[in-house]
Design brief:
globular, TM_pro_TauE-like, two-stranded antiparallel ribbon, Probable membrane transporter protein, transmembrane helix, 78% helix, 2 strands, transmembrane
Length: 271
């Protein structure tokens, strides 16, 4: 039964990853939080396990998603090369920061972050990309990659929530922004997952079937199914209009953000 749950999570997360370029983390984290809670794991590490496991699965999801986008020629590989070093360093550092934060604090951070991004994306859904806006210098892209990597590891995501708006703002159309974001999710996921494994082992996590903060069975079940369904999501992304993609993206973020804010406030006795 446990494996079936992980396979179902993977099916949904994979499709979402291909569709929005978000690596599926925004779906995986809240569902894993619920599943791990029902399995009566130590409440103090549940959120960290959800984040670490999410990043580990994004390694597989990203490979599947970026493969589909690359076949359509939508990935801006020169931009990826500029962002990647910062993404790797930032993601490992972000895992270390998350290790020091409480579960409730992480929930509130993720919740408000998701709501903020949703608002920004929805407000700009009908605003056409300005072709006169260009990406900044290579060094500035490197620095931006560092910031995106740190935040992505803390939030257990593939970086799409930040990479997509960042590229949009600098004149990249939605489909290419989503495709490039999917590629950027790979270095974030590898470095972030390694960080959660490392810091989790230092914390001596006692939950069964784990390596650091990564739950092995959840990783396997979600990865297997998400690898398959990510390709379908990527195909659908190229059939929808940029405006529709942005509105769907913001709607997803609003739901996830509201859930985590409620959970975080509840544990502080404020909701």
């Amino acid at each position: 039964m446990e494996l079936i749950i992980y396979l179902m999570i993977g099916a949904i997360a994979g499709f979402t990853a291909g569709l929005f370029g978000v690596g599926g983390g925004l779906i995986i984290v809240p569902i894993l939080y619920i599943v791990f809670t029902q399995m009566h794991y130590d409440p103090s590490i549940i959120m960290h396990m959800a984040l670490g496991t999410s990043l580990a699965t994004i390694i597989v999801t990203s490979i599947s998603s970026v493969s589909a986008h690359h076949k359509k020629g939508a990935v801006l590989w020169n931009v990826f090369r500029n962002l990647a070093p910062g993404l790797v360093l930032g993601a490992f550092l972000g895992a270390g920061i998350a290790d020091y934060l409480s579960g409730q604090g992480l929930q509130l951070l993720i919740g408000f972050f998701a709501i903020w991004v949703a608002f920004k994306m929805f407000r700009g859904a009908n605003v056409p990309v300005n072709p006169n806006h260009h990406l900044p210098s290579r060094s500035m892209q490197l620095a931006s990659g560092g910031g995106i990597g740190i935040a992505s590891a803390i939030f257990g995501i593939g970086g799409g929530s930040l990479t997509v708006p960042y590229l949009n703002k600098h004149g990249v159309i939605m489909q290419k922004a989503v495709a490039t974001s999917a590629a950027c999710g790979l270095p974030i996921a590898i470095s972030g997952a390694f960080g959660f494994m490392w810091f989790g082992q230092q914390a001596d996590v006692s939950a069964p079937n784990t390596i650091g903060y990564i739950h092995v069975y959840a990783f396997l079940g979600i990865s297997i199914m998400s690898f398959i369904t990510a390709k379908f999501g990527a195909k659908v992304a190229h059939l929808l209009s940029p405006v529709m993609l942005k509105k769907c993206f913001s709607g997803l973020l609003t739901v996830v953000g509201s859930y985590f804010i409620y959970q975080g406030l509840s544990q502080f006795g404020l909701a």
